[in-house]
Amino acid sequence: MKKRILIANRSEIAIRIIRAAHKLGMVAVVFKSDREPEAMYLRFADEIIYTKDSSNEKAIFLDSQRIVQLAVEHNIDLIHPGYGFLSENPEFAQLCEDNGLNFVGPSPQLIRDMGLKTVAKSMAIEAGLPLVPGSDGPVRDAQVAKEFADKIGYPVILKASAGGGGRGMRIVEKPETIERNFKSASDEALAAFGNGDMFIEKYLQNPKHLEFQILGDKHGNVVHLGERECSLQRKHQKIMEEAPSASVTPQMRQEMGDMAVRFAKAIGYFSAGTIEFIMDEDGSYYFMEMNTRIQVEHPVTEQVTDVDLVDWQIRVALGEVLTLKQEEIKINGWAIEVRVNTEDPQNRFSPQTGLIDLIKFPEGEYIRIETGAENGSVVTPYFDSMIAKIIVTGNDRQDCIAKTFEALSNFNLNGLKTTVPFCRAVLQHPAFVDASYTTRWVDSVFNIEMLENEDEEIIASLAATIMYAQEYLQLSSDIPSYKSDRLNVWVLNKRLNY
Amino acid sequence: MGTSYLYNRDASRLFIAVRDNGKRHKLFIPKESKPAIDGVELDINFVEQEDFHYTFEWKGKSFHCELVSRDQNKAIVKVNGVEYKYSIESIFSYVRRGMINSDANKIDENNINAPMPGKIVELFLSEGDLVNEGEAILTLEAMKMQNEITATCNGVIRKIKVQPGQSVMKDELLVEIQSIEV
Predict the structure, then answer these.
(1) Is residue A10 annotated as part of the catalytic site, yes or no?
(2) Contact (Cβ atoms closer than 8 angstroms) between residue A56 and residue A30
């Protein structure tokens, strides 16, 4: 009997998982949401479960009860949650387990622990991972805060323990202002949240975001597959990733990789997972958190290690022994992933919804496309704005940057704006080329003029002028007659070899 | 504008594209040759079109254009994913709107007056033609010598005040030229 896997997700990741399922000879089942009844991923599945979305607020992908109920009715063996939605929801994983469904991911307890930052951090300390220096609990008063800051060095960040949305938060650059800032932040937090307790932590001004991919089985075997750098972010969300990172030396890779494996083993982790680090300008790094799902950017790791992560994720869920050996895992070449989000980089990355008239991806043996959209797809406001990923592999970083730039030049989407021109601008920026870019790049360096290019500006003036000229020159007698359809000027100009 | 006018002197094919940031391009769209932009004929090829999308090739690269919106003479065009906002003026509307910095003195400067008394032999251009700076407009015969009178700016011939065979006095106005320096 073929195993039946239900993919509780949509778009490109659903297609990616279907591919892995087929490689393993499984029957791939997906949900058809009435929010996108003609979605591309549906065509790739072996079976489709038709279902009404649970409510206006809740798509099927967020409804644990319904998913599990339908899975049982359809004789499902495994449930793959993908990323987002319920992928890191311990109650969902528990519900699967309680109903005899194999959840493709770690145990509910591990998901719960890693989801609670304080728990994850204390487990990291136990495993000997470095954490950003800070107070273990609330500091009593401004004087204690100052003593603490003097010890760990400036700048520091003061955070209200009940805080959020930037309230009760202060970045303090020098000792003279810490007492004043402590008092105002504490008062602010007290007024806003009814709790004036303050934490203090070292503030990293220009950090890099690094993460290590790990794979573990249910028999205690864990390996790491090197790092990814995901420092390029807007609104605290990643937009372009690369593997490996130019800021990680082979020695650091081994150190951090060992640390990641040690941590995973210490907590008894299995499945695919990611251990995130934040790195300071001086090269010191600190544990941030662990993600217990397959990540959007997993393909860059697959490209440079030649390991199929989704395949392994499913196999270890079935109880298979991880036969990959750490010493066999080698990093070859370089990979960059560009997220194609329907967002307008010329207007603060505001989301774009509507019809994709035409989408044309670059082609080439070093180009990998993961897409959930095609010609005629509709981008709805119900789901996130990422419609595709363009992953490019090169011999080295420089080669990869050049190839990625070329690939993006051959991408075309009509109907909506995307983040592709933004990524193209990034690839040309000196801070990306020399790999010095940090998570602050978008806020502190990027401006919309970087998206423009002189040649394109000239072409735009030509296109606009020809459109206008068509009507204008219509009055002129030396133009062959044509219908008053504005498109016909193009036919005309083509005829004129223009 | 270089020599590009010579393909076609029709001033109705000359346009000014003004970007929302104030940047301007002068475009000459000839009937049977490549466009000249800011005085240079460019080897731009029109490759394909489909509805409101068109592709140009230039410098070995593809440029995907999409008309995003159009309102009178204002257009938003998306090229390779980035939007550019332009308003387009014909050279005549541009002049009429006074968008060319042309005070009265400047107009006089550009007009052609007879440098010496003599007789008009030949006119090379007509009213409404585009003319390049330094290009001959007419020949004036004086003291048995033929003198080519040239334009002092890139512009449009607004008015020709003389005819071949006509005798003129020194400093007499021969041709009015509207500068199109933008």
Answers:
(1) no
(2) no
